[in-house]
# Entry
Amino acid sequence: MMLLNDIIEEPKTHKFKKNSNVLLKTSITLFTLSYMFFSSLLYSINLPDKKINEKSKNVYNNKIVLTDKSKANAPELEKIYIVSRQNNDKWATSTPKYPTVDDKVIMYPIIKANINDKIIYFSNTKNIKINGKKIPSKLIKEWDLAKYDEISLKWFKIEPTKKSYSNDNCQPGWWDKIKYKSTIFGDGNWQCNADVMPTIKDIIPLNIDKKITGTMRYKVEVKYNNKIISSPDEKSTGKIGIKPKVHMICVKGNTDNEYINWLLSYGNVPYIWGSASPKRGKNKDKFHQSEVYIGADCADLVVAAWRKIDQDVPYFGSCGFKKGGLFVPKFAEYIVDKPILNEDGVFCYNNQSMTFGKDSLIHPGDIIYFTGHVGVILQDVNKNKKLDISDTYIEILFDTTTIKTLKNRFSTDFSIIRWK
# Structure
């Protein structure tokens, strides 16, 4: 019976062993598949460095992932400057420009950035000087959208918020505080044409033969990776006004009279009663508010433009232009004193019509002096070669620099003075 039982049970034992082998193989297979799955998952989380796509990003499982390499190579923006180039000048520089109304000035943003502890200047122009320093061409790169995200660029004009100021409040050394505002006039461009059309609605631009002259300052702003930086702007001010590091373009006239050309560059410049220099000593006039286009009173406008053509003339009040004044005998002379206006609207002197022109009695650029106020004779509007009420003069008085007709002159009586 025992032998029989052993024989009967033997097939059961063999079957159990066979099932155990199958179970073991299955477990090993499942463990192997699980190991491969979790290894793949860990690999996708800890991505290795590899070549990035055109936006410096990789796509895994329909999600955008910024790689460690692209993070390391993203530019860290440090500063932004404005440089400009006049016509076909070789260098684009950060210095002010004084073009004529027929010249072309292009401005460029220069972005100083740090990439892996190396300084790079991003721009779309070469031959750059910033504060007199040449930037090596090997450090100048164009912004590459295949490597970096897009950036946002905006251009602004910077202008005084008022047309008239006064330094005279009976306190020595007191300066009227000039506030400035910025107004956007272009965006998205790596270069910008400079124009001096004012944005403040009640400022009348200087317009000669349908061409706008005058002075304007600018800033450029860049936004990248939620960081915004700007070139020196409307907040860059000192005790006498805006600082020279704010980029400035002064557009002159283009006549055959260089004095008048410089006078026209003072468009948009505000009136400052008692404009002055913050310095003392021999070189003080170089820092005068009129000299640096911050503002001017009537006499300082007349003097500032004359100084621009290398005339060594000191700044002096309008009283210096009167007969017997300290200014006139040394630097200027009287040509006509108190002419008479005839019924035809023509000014006469010694019973004769006052001729007006380059080789006439009255010249463009002669000073017109009223009691307590001065301007400069500008244009023979009717081209009749006579000084009449339709002709124009340029002045600054409780307003930005303005062109007026002699019909609307400051007062009835005036004299004509000429620089020596």
